[in-house]
Amino acid sequence: MVNILVMNISFVYRGEWLTTQVGWVQDVPRIILEEFFFGKFFTIFSFLFGLGVALQIGKAKESGRFSNAFFIRRFGSLFVFGLAHILFIWSGDILHIYGALGFLLLLLFRLKANAMGVIALVIFLFPFYFETFKLLVNDIIGYDHMAPLAAYSRQELVDLKHNGSFFSGIPIRLKEYSFLMQYVYSAMIPAALAMMLIGGFFYKKGLLDNIALWVRRGRVMVPVCFILFLAYRIIILYYIKPNYDVEPGSNLAKFLMTIYYFADLVISLSYLWFLAFLLRFDFWKTVLTPIAFVGRMALTNYIMQSVLGYLIMRTFNGYDSFSIAQSVLIVMVIYAVQIPLSKLWLSRFKFGPLEWLWRCISYGKVLSIR
Asked: Is there a single domain that holds both residue 161 and residue 172?
């Protein structure tokens, strides 16, 4: 859901394309994506990644089998998967971010829980990432990261996507990645690292030992916070932004955007609470269980979505031709197919194919997949 619009239209011409997406049929899915998807799931995945790493490190140390080599192979191979993803399939990869930050977690997770929480808070509240990126990359190095992709006209990009060879797409993907560098390094990476540290904090504090207790304690606070911060995002996006000229980079803009990003964090964690709340009931356990099969093959399904996106947008010439509503429909169809496929695969194998490969590399040996 988060990636499909980026697959369909370049960020260079996203604004121009959005002006053509008019009428309630397009407005409804656009608002749903903006309010409930964008900026939410990357945050959740980062939290769960940090939680998973902390859990693995903790179990390895308890059993006396902790090995830096295991985690170096694990994070290094994930980083390489990400680079290959960028070069050969799609430029919007997140795996290289997780792989690179994994090495940093090996150091930071040696700290006490409170120290990790403080560092996460400092990383989140630091207000000058975009200015720092601009100073280092644009001013000191002198590299205009947006220029290579912006040099193409919209029609040129369409022609290259539709008619270019597989290998001619590699330089285009590198230019697409370059175009998004400021957002990746100034927004995504700090947010990811902060959430990974919060995931480690949760583990070290033992906050997952009694999830039912936290679900009960949050019955009032979580829904209230969810509604308040969702309302804040709506006011920012649909009232303040269209009606007031807030100068980018001003103290007011930084203050408003810091709360905006914090709202995404609160909403993301609220999703986890709502899920834990629903899973207390047998009906919702039955309804939600099929999603678990997709989740157990998250790496495989993530790459599969990119491959299908490549086929739809490039091989079958769909790039820059779908509306917002059509793009959302594509996602729903693909996900609906991935649920039974994942269940079928896991009825015969212990891991998804890429999960198995990643596991073999991490352990440095070939493991059974049956």
From this structure: yes
The answer to whether 195 and 108 are in contact (CB under 8 A) is no
Tokens of 268: 């993301």
* DSSP 8-state symbol, 247: P
Q: Report d(CA 258, CA 208) in Å as an integer.
A: 28
Give the helix/strand (H/E) hosting 97: helix 95-108
Domain annotation covers residue 92: yes
Same domain, 23 and 57: no
Instruction: Look up residue 110 and give its two tokens.
Output: 């040696």
Per-residue pLDDT of the chain (370 residues), as tens digits, is: 999 999 999 989 999 999 999 999 999 999 999 999 998 999 999 999 999 999 999 999 998 888 899 999 999 999 999 999 999 999 999 999 999 999 999 999 999 999 999 999 999 888 889 889 999 999 999 999 999 999 999 999 999 999 999 999 999 999 999 999 999 999 999 999 999 999 999 999 998 888 889 899 999 999 999 999 999 999 999 999 888 888 877 888 888 888 998 899 999 999 999 999 999 999 999 999 999 999 999 999 999 999 999 999 999 999 999 999 999 999 999 999 999 999 999 999 999 999 999 999 999 999 999 9
Positions of E strands within the chain: none
Same domain, 85 and 200: yes
Task: Print the domain residue range for 33.
Answer: 1-38+281-370
Q: Is residue 368 part of a domain?
A: yes
